[in-house]
Queue: 2 jobs
Job 1
Amino acid sequence: MIEPLVLLPGLMCDARVFAPQVAHFSRQRAVTVAPVSLGERIEEIASGLLDQLPHRFALAGLSMGGVVALELVRRAPDRVSRLCLMSTDAQADTPQIAAAREEHLVGAKAGRLEDVMRRILGSDSLAPGPRRVPILNDVISMALDLGADVFERQVRALQRRPDQQGALRMIKTPTLVVCGAHDRLTPVRKHAFMADLIPGAELKVIDDAGHLPTLETPQAVNEALESWLTTSSRVVYG
């Protein structure tokens, strides 16, 4: 039986952030885009998802979705057949980052969610080119559709998230780490660090992408995921 694929979107994103991947992979397997907004702690979000997801599945998380993915594989390693981490970070918030998020919360509650999201993401976190502004606008649309209440829950979850660096060494499932060369929010060095700690992990740096490679370079992401999905899902022993 072909394993289902579960995709976890980033901060204030919905299934649209994975539209090219859903269109491609749903021809060959069951694909689910699961929300990462139902809780104010990463642990709470992960626990709720485990009750709804298939018994065993391939798991890919983008940005905040990668944070939740790490918690899922920590809690239920036997249920995750393979893991892909994209544009994400295993480290907890520093006090400075957590404090900056408080300013974002104030702005969102005051009705300035669009401005807040443009400050958080910013066009310079995406690769240069004609697609940069349209993709940024698409993400803003997703954020406005989700609204300020979801923003507050997700930001609280990120502020309180556990540091997962130590847990990286315990991952035994085949793992792909993907990042864009132009990503300033979660730069290449953070992904290289994660890939070095995860036994047998593969690092894929996409030259023409920034923080949202699923939309910026969908073909490159699909090809990387295709290779990841067709490798042996045997347990990796480090």
Note: The chain has a mean pLDDT of 94.
Job 2
Amino acid sequence: MNYSGVLVSACPGRYDEMLRELDAIDGVEVHQKDPDHNRCIIVIEAPDVPAEMDLFKAVSNLPSVVDAALVVHNFEDDAVVQSPNN
């Protein structure tokens, strides 16, 4: 599974609209809101890199978004982790 932390900035006067648009996208979750600066931190979750990039592009292309910047990316393997006692 792929996870990305993205800083998203709203167009002036469109912060609430941006939050509604982000909430409507499956695979995107708003984690931190900063209404004083018209921005928020979201986490994108996708099964693979192409799907993750599609979500990032969808966020970037929202009418209310002026900028989306990738802050962190993490890839978690689907492998089963076994305890030392197994």
Note: Helices lie at 15-23, 49-60.
